[in-house]
Design goal:
Blueprint lengths: L3 H14 L6 E3 L6 H7 L4 E7 L2 E6 L3 E6 L5 E6 L23 E2 L2 E2 L29 E2 L5 E2 L9 E4 L3 E6 L3 E5 L1 H9 L10 H12 L6 H4 L11 H10 L13 H21 L10 H9 L23 E5 L2 E5 L6
Antiparallel strand pairs: 1-10, 2-3, 3-4, 4-12, 5-11, 6-7, 8-9, 10-11, 13-14
Helix pairs in contact: 1-7, 4-7, 6-7
Enzyme class: lyase
Protein name: DNA-(apurinic or apyrimidinic site) lyase
GO molecular function: class I DNA-(apurinic or apyrimidinic site) endonuclease activity; damaged DNA binding; oxidized pyrimidine nucleobase lesion DNA N-glycosylase activity; zinc ion binding
């Protein structure tokens, strides 16, 4: 499932490539025909991400709300202007092959997590293609335009030069401004949206009165926004906190440290496109981590492997239907 950094990256790409443009909307799959017809021909006027949801505004106060869920993704094609605020700190975002490559000194992993191929900055993208003035036929490189529909596309948003295809979302709905406000009101604070100090107080207040295990609370989007399975495991390890500890038993300062750590890690994720959760790496180790997920995390996806700190075997267990990774020694 895309975590908070991915959705913020997607929103920023929409801001660069869709906002301010008239959009032709359709539902090739046929499951969003009415919704697509409501925004077809309108101009996208703004976009924002909150938690794991993106809200794209159109004129006449219509909003498209998209929650990618477990399997959703945006695929872009055409001319794509990369938002420089989400380019890698050591280079620009770009495409990668399946073996991983280096582009302008930016290290891309084999899954394309730091590229326009990734789910966080939409995938399978043909970038910097200069389109002809026509809206159909071939582009300047002789490729079909608009691009052919491939697979089950819930929603296609098409400008004169850019195409965005949405596949497999959990939610894809049209909302009024009041409905958008109501949706956002149900979400916990997002470090990239809310005041940091106010967000910290909200998180502390909620967690410190809950009997629910902290490992479940961090995944509850009404408590804190954007944290998914990877960040949950890594934040708990970095706090050396047992995931089964009831929220009300977690020391207040520890809750504050987790919030502040999330502020830090989310910013890194948006900047690099990768869920980098290890600190104190030298230059060579950091490049390895940026290129290979297995070198990027403390405990996530390391079941049965020795803890990087104490050597104890990392445990994986089911928690509310999701895999939870933790060290029974460091997080005792």
């Amino acid at each position: 499932m895309p975590e908070g950094h991915s959705v913020h990256r997607i929103a920023r790409q929409f801001d660069r490539n869709i906002v301010g443009r008239r959009v032709a909307a359709s539902s090739p799959q046929g499951r969003f025909v009415q919704g697509a017809s409501m925004i077809d021909g309108r101009t996208a006027t703004s976009v924002k991400a909150v938690a794991k949801q993106m809200f794209l505004e159109f004129d006449d106060d219509l909003w498209l709300r998209v929650h990618l869920g477990m399997y959703g993704a945006w695929d872009f094609a055409g001319e794509i202007v990369v938002d420089p605020t989400i380019a890698s700190a050591n280079g620009r975002m770009g495409q990668t092959n399946q073996r991983g490559t280096v582009v302008d000194d930016a290290v891309m992993d084999a899954a394309g997590e730091n590229s326009l191929d990734s789910i966080g900055a939409p995938r399978r993208t043909r970038t910097r293609v200069r389109m002809s003035e026509q809206t159909s036929g071939l582009d300047d490189e002789g490729q079909p335009w608009p691009p052919p529909v491939v697979g089950q596309v819930r929603l296609r948003l098409l400008t004169e030069i850019t195409c965005a295809d949405l596949r497999g979302p959990t939610a894809c709905v049209i909302q009024t401004p009041d409905e958008v406000a109501a949706t956002i009101a149900k979400l916990g604070p997002d470090p990239l949206v809310d005041d940091l100090a106010e967000g910290e107080e909200r998180v502390v207040s909620v967690i410190r009165r809950k009997p629910t295990p902290i490992g479940l609370l961090l995944m509850d989007q009404s408590v804190i926004s954007g944290i998914g399975n990877v960040y949950r495991a890594e934040l708990l390890f970095r706090a050396r906190l047992n995931p089964h500890t009831p929220g009300r038993d977690v020391p207040e300062e520890t809750v504050r440290d987790i919030w502040r750590d999330w502020v830090k890690l989310l910013a890194i994720g948006v900047e690099t496109g990768q869920m980098m959760t290890m600190d104190g790496l030298d230059a060579a180790a950091r490049r390895r981590a940026m290129a290979r997920r297995a070198d990027r995390h403390w405990v996530y996806h390391r079941a049965g492997l020795p803890c990087r700190v104490c050597g104890t075997e990392i445990v994986m267990e089911e928690a509310a239907g999701r895999k939870l990774y933790w060290c029974p020694s460091c997080q005792a």
